[in-house]
Amino acid sequence: MEHSEVLQQACYVFLNDLNDEINPSSAHQMDNTEIVQKCRLIIDKEQNPQIKAFLETLSEVIHAYLTERASEDSLRFYLSEQFSIKNEEIDGLIHRLVAITKQSSDTDSTHPAIRPLAEYPKVSIIITTYNRKGFLYQAIQSILKQDYPHKEITVIDDCSSDGTEELMYQSFGDEPRVIYMRNETNSGPGNNRRKAFAAHADGEYVLFLDDDDYLIDMNYLSKAVDFHILHPEISFVAANVFLEYSKAKQLKISSLQLSRVIKKQDYFMNFEKKGYPKPSSTLTTVFKREALMAMDILHMNMVNDASIYLRSLLIGDAGFIDTIAGVYRLHGDNITFNLSQGFLIENLEEKMLIKNMAVQKYGYSEQEMTEWFNHNAYDTISYYLLNSAKDATDFKFMYHWALNHCPPIYNQLRNEFRTKLIKKQLLRISLLRTLLGR
């Protein structure tokens, strides 16, 4: 039996046992802690450690669903995608879980009155793509399936050669909610976000989606817009995601574990430090267009996720919805794992601009922003040297840049990465000897 079949069978056993454990006559009296404990007892019976790891994540998803931190859409997606459970079988496997949530829910089950489209604030979605037509189709469909009525998607194609253009015309040519733009030459995702924003992002709210990510909670845009309306002081609202480890074919929950609203200065000064994580890309992040304009998005050199977040935090607070709303793929081709030297320098120069904006326009002190920049520069350069630097030339270039622009981190970088550089040099010598037959 193949691993996928073993995994599927383990899921069937787990859910059937859980259904048996939940007594229908007392289901309304059973709290979430009891159900999680029952999940734990079932998992402990599993002897295979690999299967057990998958079931532990399943237990986490069930707990998130029961505590309203995952929608029924997300639970169904997880069962289908991770365990290959057929959709028609899911109803029977989760019927008692659904019954418990319906009994414990205080929300009004009646549907709100249908309003004219103009009464819903428009959400503009920008999707950048390059040679990923299979992923792109799923990303677009995940937006079109959202229950929020007033939305418009702009796909900007960076001169793909894999048939993306044909896909767009064949699949979405007659879809009035989808606009297709195509570049004549490749210019990179940062430039494309800005270009598409300038051309078509006229909605009150804006979502930037990469072509390899997608939403799974079909109610998410509605939740995000409602959150904005309830908290007008925020620049953006984001949510949790599944991380999809494509090679291992495994989904894991990535939870931000943040407060519903975080003050802009707190999040800005501590961005990506412990307790202040960056959301996964921008796939769940709905920005207020007014904030994007105020932070000068049309003149940004690099419209990447960290820069958009940091600039937005100069304008307003951050909001978070504690729910699993999308899927962020980790497949080895993500741009964050393949940074070019040019991309890195643009990133650092953008952070220098943000530092200057904070001081000159928003009242931050020169000293605290110098320390802020040195910290961010060190993290950015370290990430590049660990993951993308190829040889001694790359290391020396970055050392030189640090010496000229942020001297306090120069020696720290040299000391930190001396051993790694030596290993790269030895590996290169060994490879050359092998190629030369010596």
Overview of the structural elements:
The protein has helices spanning about 5-20, 30-45, 50-65, 70-85, 85-105, 135-145, 165-170, 190-200, 220-230, 265-270, 290-295, 305-315, 340-360, 365-385, 390-405, 410-435; strands at about 125-130, 150-155, 180, 205-210, 215, 235-245, 250-255, 260, 285-290, 315-330. Helix 1 packs across helix 2. Strands 1, 2, 3, 4, 5, 6, 7, 8, 9 and 10 form a ten-stranded mixed sheet that branches. The longest helix is centred in the C-terminal third of the chain and has 27 residues, at about 410-435. It is an alpha/beta fold and about 450 residues long.
The radius of gyration computed from the alpha-carbon positions, rounded to a whole number of angstroms, is 24 Å
Assign an overall shape: globular
**What's the pLDDT, averaged over the residues?**
89
The tally of helices reads 16
Distance between the termini: 47 Å
Short account of what is shown:
The chain is built from 16 helices and ten strands.
What structural keywords apply?
438 residues, alpha/beta, ten-stranded mixed β-sheet, 16 helices
Topology:
Blueprint lengths: L2 H19 L10 H13 L4 H18 L5 H12 L3 H18 L18 E7 L3 H12 L6 E7 L6 H9 L5 E5 L6 H12 L4 E6 L3 E2 L4 H11 L3 E12 L4 E5 L6 E2 L1 H6 L16 E3 H6 L10 H11 L1 E14 L10 H20 L5 H22 L4 H14 L4 H27 L2
Parallel strand pairs: 1-2, 1-4, 2-3, 6-10
Antiparallel strand pairs: 4-9, 5-10, 6-7, 6-9, 8-10
